[in-house]
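Example record

The entry below shows one chain as it appears in the dataset: sequence first, then structure tokens.
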Amino acid sequence: MKEICRLIKKFTPFTWVFIFFISFASLGGAYWRVFIHPYIWLDSGKIFAASLQIRSPQEGMLTELTAEPGEKIDKGVLLFSMENTRLAEKQHKTKLLLADLHKELLMYKNQSEEAMQNYLSDLGVKPQHEVDQHLQTMQAAQLKINQIQAQTQALLEEEHHLLQHEAQLSTASPCEAIVLKLQKAAKDLVQADEPIVTVLDLSSCWIEAKAPEKTLHLLQLGQEVDIYLAAYPNQSWKGSISWIGPATVSQLEGSSLSSGQEMIPIKISAAKENFPSKPGLSATIRIKKYN
């Protein structure tokens, strides 16, 4: 023990610096091997979302467009309303026919009441054939009244059907989304199944990244990953590899060969819970080499 103490006393400041450097390098190497080396780090990640075209349910004219490009909307928010011109024309004709039938009905009712009054006043006073004419007029009027009431009932049922059909002409967003583009404007005539609004479906986001070719043998579908977003530096999310694509075209200038530097595109599905659905954000992916 005394010899060790005597030896330590002989150490110069340079010797202590050298010992400290060796110790620090050893600790750094151990940290690298235990905490960093087992992982593949990909800094090329970016959040993407599927684009979705909202189409016209049938032909007609757009009466209202409520969304603007770049706007974030919730599921169920009204996107556009439209009027089916053929239905509108049918509804207009039905209303006109109902109005005409109503006028005609009042006319025959008045005619029947007048014939009834004449019948009662002429009964026993005027010749029987004149009294019978009042009865015939009443019967004819009642027949027309019955016909008009049947026609009116049929038109009312048709009008109710048309109104129910018209209620389906307002279209809401099927998901939480960001409006990308409006293909049409208010007052435009559109055909059935024609695109009206294009949105980004925030309910189906994923991350795309590129991995070096030399790491391909370490990647597999379903492999768990850790996701880090630059916009949220103190958080991380779990995900898994959902797709491994073919090698991309080499980005090395002046060379048709990549010398093993080709990049492999991969897609990563993030756990939906609390994951920020914001397309365009950059992401860093950590993949453990060995499960």
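Notes for this example: DSSP finds four helices and twelve strands in the chain. The two ends are 47 Å apart (CA to CA).
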